[in-house]
Predict the structure.
Amino acid sequence: MAKPVKPSTTTAFYVQAVISFAISLVGLAVGILYLPVTTWVRSFLALGLMYVVTSTFTLAKCVRDRQEEATVVSRVDQARLDKLLAEHDPFRTE
């Protein structure tokens, strides 16, 4: 049985994702900092930014966990099928 190929993230893609996240986070934080509004409004926007960031990490973790769970279930199903096929004897009479 051939092992399924596990897709891997390249280092370049990982670095690009981290840099993109950092630039967007810093850019929005600087934008909030220099907005010509009161401290209360600036604080509210900063709190909203933190909430969006933490929610994004939580969502990404949930999606990753669901994908890993589906992979494990698929592998278990494949192992069961392989076992059934290995034990099957088409020439055996009951």
Notes: The mean pLDDT is 86. The first helix runs from residue 11 to 33.
